[in-house]
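Sanity check

After download, print the first record. It should look like this:
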Amino acid sequence: MCEPFWRNHQAAPHGQVIKAAKWSLSSCSIETSEDDNLLDGDACIAGTHYTMTNGGSINSTTHLLDLLDEPIPGVGTYDDFHTIDWVREKCKDRERHRRINSKKKESAWEMTKSLYDAWSGWLVVTLTGLASGALAGLIDIAADWMTDLKEGICLSALWFNHEQCCWASNETTFEERDKCPLWKTWAELIIGQAEGPGSYIMNYIMYIFWALSFAFLAVSLVKVFAPYACGSGIPEIKTILSGFIIRGYLGKWTLMIKTITLVLAVASGLSLGKEGPLVHVACCCGNIFSYLFPKYSTNEAKKREVLSAASAAGVSVAFGAPIGGVLFSLEEVSYYFPLKTLWRSFFAALVAAFVLRSINPFGNSRLVLFYVEYHTPWYLFELLPFILLGVFGGLWGAFFIRANIAWCRRRKSTKFGKYPVLEVIIVAAITAVIAFPNPYTRVNTSELIKELFTDCGPLESSSLCDYRNDMNVSKIVDDIPDRPAGTGVYSAIWQLCLALIFKIIMTVFTFGIKVPSGLFIPSMAIGAIAGRIVGIAVEQLAYYHHDWFIFKEWCEVGADCITPGLYAMVGAAACLGGVTRMTVSLVVIVFELTGGLEYIVPLMAAVMTSKWVGDAFGREGIYEAHIRLNGYPFLDAKEEFTHTTLAADVMRPRRNDAPLAVLTQDNMTVDDIENMINETSYNGFPVIMSKESQRLVGFALRRDLTIAIESARKKQEGIVGSSRVCFAQHTPSLPAESPRPLKLRSILDMSPFTVTDHTPMEIVVDIFRKLGLRQCLVTHNGIVLGIITKKNILEHLEQLKQHVEPLAPPWHHNKKRYPPSYGPDGKPRPRINNVQLNSVTEEREESEEEVHLLNSTTL
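Expected structure tokens:
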């Protein structure tokens, strides 16, 4: 017997929903249909043990279609836009494991197969890490080269970017280290001028031309070959890991097109990043490699363990943070994360980081472009500006989420969303026209973050390091004392302020367009700009007012007191935390970027402040907001249910709905069941004992019924439309001339999860989240009253957001809601298939009348 999987201390992910859905390129989302009212109709593989436990007290094992001699094609698999049955998948895996263990001592070949099965998990995450690291290195190298292609080209080697082209030059000066004879701008190649208005205009035109070309090519490839390659991918990855199936979203075409278009989108200069899409790319690799191993290809629940490890590898290569990647997978995207998945995620992140380090795409022996190290400690008084940066990050996150969701909703509801190519071209054109005049918006966003993070040393030639030297520095040292800002610093501050406004506005309109678009880098850039400005302000304040009591103890004359680059790093973490509401994983990621334990406290203070401020305006992060906008079937474990509704308030059918369709244990014929299947759209039916006794017997899935009847007609003689269908253990006595009965007890779930009508919805929602239920029956004294599915819960939560309930229950909350079976006139109350349904309505009307009388009474 297959034991309940939650007894093994492994809670299943969110409850499963039952929906058909469709993909729309214009919205890049999945819209759930309204006609599926119950759960997904999916059957187990023939001969598979299927166990469910209600309350931990009743166990039953059912075998699917014992009457069949061979498995039916398609049984045990899932249709597109359906949810998996976690209970069945766990039971299938345990049966497979038992079968392998029972045969491994029979021969050397069986022992080899057992070892292969045991090590297949490590093999698949190893391949995933290798592929993720290799693709990340390829994307980094190609994106850098194509970004520099907008400004010029290397004549000696066309495949070199600007920095690589000037490595071999002996004519590069310290002040103009980026200028060398081998690198030619487009103005020099076309009109032969390196300086002057004509050169500036020609470079301006070529910059816009290449930006529009890259953007147009990216959106065209996405539209024609892989519509699923658009966007960040993290909201969809979270939904898939919760049990939803989106065929093709992690396929080979999506992987190929996303890899190519991600390079084009980053090179076009749009306000987006490649870090989020790299998680999608890594999950595509994990999904493709899982099909090489039967252990994962035939089990959707096991496959999601590989995808959790792949998401960790994606963050590992995106930020060069293996430990942060594991924590990101645990905190942000995964909901079924057993201990072995933690180990394999760590190993996948390690392999991916090792491969990327071997490729060395940036030429600095680091995994990311903006790796920095600081040598100056932080002081206690700096916690105040760090917290202020956290406040800014929270405000930015709340503003961005509301503004971006409003724009995406408008895109969905207007004709503008029907022209994704035009939208991308318009956004790319506006971005290129505005970005070129400002040197801080013209460069790649990763290059900008690198410059903002870098501390000013004697070898830095950036205008951000244009300080006046008040003392002679005879040797190169790491710690240069604080100095007064020069004209270059003040000019850079104004340019950074304009870049900050530009980035804030354009990121709102860019995230969500139909090209691969990540949010990590733009958010970090906004925070880094704000942090650098604050850092310079605090540095100058400490220099000119070192005798103030807050600076007097730490900032002496000639001391290196303030590090503006550290403020940029803290601001970047605060803004990213305000948008995503990440905490632990974000701090570890930024810590791995800097390589210093000393700055964990400022990072923690800023990140927690940004989360608190952001939560004050709404608890949803950007990914949860997009999941809700796109209508994905996802129950957020972070969301608290504080309302006072009961299961009877949410169950179906409602007052004006069609009656609850039920099956009787042994009183229905094959024609009766087929008519019910054809006349309804439900994907499951409760089975009761009889019309006289409405006690619950079990639950039968629509697909199981269809498969069983079709198979019985083909393989069993005497099964006709008038044959009696029996779900009972013993077939009732029938007249001699009656046709052969059809026994379907084998497909019946004998222990469906049930709750009473008085069960608070707070408990019901928690059950769906932790046990991964697909549906839950509502009973009263053993009589079926209705059913609750994940769709019903999501609709109920959405309704409650529009109508805030009182914190305390109403005075009539504990009234008996179900009167006796006989009404005040002595006649039986109306029933549907002898199932009493209208008592809730009558009691609600009595309660509303009593409330009305109470409100109208003068006290």
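If your output differs, re-run the checksum step. Summary of this record's structure: The mean pLDDT is 80.
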